[in-house]
Amino acid sequence: MSNQIVVTSQGQISTGVDQFTNGLTTYLGELGLPTNQVLVPVSERTKVINNLPEVITLVDASQRINSIYLSKFIAACGAGLFDAALNFIWDETVVNLRKKVVHFDIEYFYDSVVTDEKRRQKLRGEEDLVKLDEWELVRGCHLTGILSDIGFKHLDYIRDMRNWASAAHPNQNDLTGFQLISWLETCIKEVIGRGPEGPAIEIKRFLASIRKNILTSVDAQHINAGLEHLPIDLGTSLLRTLFGMYTTASASVQVKSNIRMVCAKAWAMAPEEAKYECGVKYATFASNGENDRKDAANEFLTTVNGLPFLPKDTLAVEISEKVNNLYLAHTGFNNFHNEPSHARLLDSYISQTGAIPDSVRKVYVKAVVMAKIGNGHGVSDMATSYYDNMLTKFGEAEIKEFISLLLDREFSSRVLLTSCRYGFKNLTTYFQSRTSNQVSIQLIQMILSATDQQIPNLGKDSRFTQLISTYA
C-alpha cells in the first residue's frame, strides 16, 4: 500500500494549471515580454499529469522521498516548461548513476572508462565522479555492467535530446507530454529503479577477492570457470582493471599473485582492441621512464602471452634486443646452456600470426636460422622447440629473408660446415611447401639442386642474385 500514489485532485491540478497559465501569460504581456512558445499547451501537460502516478510507483517509496529532481520535474511539467523538465529527468538519472558506481566498485569503474593513464591517476574516490563528462558516466556504467545494453542505448538517446531539446541550450523545440512521460519511464526502469545486473555483481565480488583474499589454485579454478559465463562485452573493462591493478605502483605482492592466477582467462575473454590497449600502456610506461610499471606490465603480458600486442615500434625495439641477446648467446661460450632462456624470451614476443616488424625481420630470421642449424658442434636441444615454433610462423616475407641469407658472408661461411649445411637444406625443403611465391620457388629449387660445394657460393652466383633482385 505504501508504494501506491493516489492523486485525488487531478481535476483540481488541471484547473490550477489553467489558472497559472492564464495569469502568467497576462503578466508577461504586461511586462512587454513574449507569450508565445513559452509554455507548452495545457493539453500536453495534462498528458504528463494523468500518467505520472503509474510511472512514479516504479520508484521504491524509500527512494522516492529523496528524489528531489523528480519533484522538480513534476513542477516544471505543471508549469509548462518541458525543456526544463527534461533537464530534471536527466539530473535525477545522473545522480542515481553516480550512487550506483559508488556502491559498486569505483576503482573498477574508473579503470573501465578512463584510458588516459595521467588522467586516471587523478580519479580516486566518489568526489571525483563529477570530473567525468556525463557521456563518460553513462558509457562507464555500460562497460561495467551497471547499465544494460538496452538501457545504454535509451539513455544515450535521452542524453542527446537533453543536450539539444532541453533548457541546457537555447531552443524553441516542441516536446510532447507523451515523449516526456516515456523518457521518465525509461530512466526509472533502466536506472533510477534498477540495480546492477547479476554479472556486474559477480565482477564486484571477484575484484574484492583479488584485493583482499589469498587465492588458492582451487579458488582460481572456480573463478576462471565463473569468468567463462560473463558477457563478452565485460571483457574489455575487466582486463583493463586487472592490468591496472597489476601495474600500479602500490600493488602488493599478494594482489599480483592473485591476478597471475586468473589473468589468462580474462585475457582470453577480452577482444583484441583491449589487448592492444595494454600494449600501448606498456609503451607509455617505457617512454615516460616508469621502469617499475613497465616491468610489471611486462610480467603481466608475459603471463598471458600478450607481448606480441605491443605497438609496432615498441615491439621492434623489444624483438631487436632479444634477437641480439640470442645471437650473442649462440656465438658465445657455453651456448648450448645459454641459448634456451633467450630463445624462450624471443619466442614469447612472436604472435600466432608470426607478424614481424619490417625493421627487425632480417636480423630476426638470421638469428633464428643460425641457431637452428647449429654451429658445427651441434644444436642446443633445450632451445630447439622454441626455434621450431618460430620457424613454423615464417610467412612469405620471412622465407624471402631465409633464402637471401646466402648473400650474407657470415651465413655463407656457416654452411661450409657439413652439419650446418645439412640443417639449412632441411629447412629449405620445409619451406618449399610453404610458399606460393614463384621467385621463391625457383630459388629454392636452385638451392636443392646445388651440390654441397655449390651451396656456400650461391650468393655469388649471378643467376641466383639476379633472381633475388626480382623480389618485389
Characterization of this structure:
By secondary structure, the protein is mainly alpha-helical. The protein has 3 domains: 10-104 and 146-192, no CATH class; 198-309, no CATH class; 312-469, no CATH class. Helices cover 69% and strands 0% of the residues. The chain contains 25 helices and no strands. It has helices spanning 10-30, 42-56, 61-64, 68-79, 82-103, 106-113, 117-121, 134-143, 149-165, 177-192, 198-212, 217-227, 235-247, 253-269, 272-287, 291-303, 312-331, 335-348, 358-373, 381-391, 396-404, 409-414, 418-432, 438-449, 462-469. α6 packs across α8 (134-143), α8 packs antiparallel against α9 and α18 (335-348) packs parallel to α20. The N and C termini lie far apart (81 Å). Mean pLDDT is 86; it is low at 1-11.
What's this model, at a glance?
It is built from 25 helices and no strands.
Sketch the topology as an H/E string, one letter per element. HHHHHHHHHHHHHHHHHHHHHHHHH
| Overall form | elongated
Radius of gyration from CA coordinates: 33 Å
**Low-confidence stretches at least 5 residues in length (pLDDT < 50)?**
1-11
SSE-based structural type: mainly alpha
Bin the helical content. Answer: 55-70%
Number of helical stretches of at least 4 residues: 25
- Total separate domains: 3
| Overall pLDDT metric | 86
Largest sheet: none
In angstroms, what separates the terminal alpha carbons? 81 Å
Task: Please report the total strand number as a whole number.
Answer: 0
**Portion in beta strands:** under 5%
